[in-house]
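Bug report (template v2)

What were you trying to do?
Predict the complex of my protein with guanosine-5'-triphosphate.

What happened?
Run completed; filing so the output is reviewed.

Input:
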Amino acid sequence: MLMGAAGVGKTCIIKRWIERRYFGEYIPTKFQKETTEVAVKGKNCKVEILDTAGLSAYWSLRDSFVRTVDGIMLVFSLNDVESFEYLTTLHEQVSRGMREDSTIIIIGNKEDLPEDVRSVNYHLAQETANKLGAEYRETSAMTGFQIDDAFLKLIELCMDKRIAVNDVPTKKTKKGKITQCRQQ
Ligand code: GTP
């Protein structure tokens, strides 16, 4: 699921990954689902991608899906400091609603823009991601820079986390029932 402020490039990121093209026109998203297949760690994965609205009018729909997803890309735009500041709030809300076995990655999009219009520097973004315990990638939907890498990294992290959380040792009770043993 991709989340972030309006106009940061969520739809363009998805189109670049799935259709290998840049769709520069801005049409505000309400909610949209795309599907693709990809090989990760030697396994074919069917990936469903939820494109959510940056505009607040459609947030209730967006928020109702948080608990259903394996991975979340929190996207901001490198030339929009407000979209970056909004990430911390969004991260807090999402962390409360998401499942224990889902994963967040942070994306600074529009990496192609020249330095003089960039308002969030790499080190600040990386430091923020570290504090939030998330991976950070800079991408450009326009040029395709690190788009594959961002999606593949998130899918890998989702697979690893799911295995780690669900691979809990089990033991048989006296009555023969299988129970899970949580490690402290
Ligand atoms: P909402 O649907 O309102 O949430 O917006 P969104 O986050 O889906 O943004 P969208 O993908 O529609 O992109 C908004 C605008 O940003 C587009 O019209 C593009 O022109 C521009 N854009 C998106 N990605 C890039 C990028 O990598 N580089 C540059 N320079 N512009 C981009």
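What did the reviewer find?
The CA atoms of residues 26 and 108 lie 18 Å apart. The chain is about 35% helix and 25% strand.
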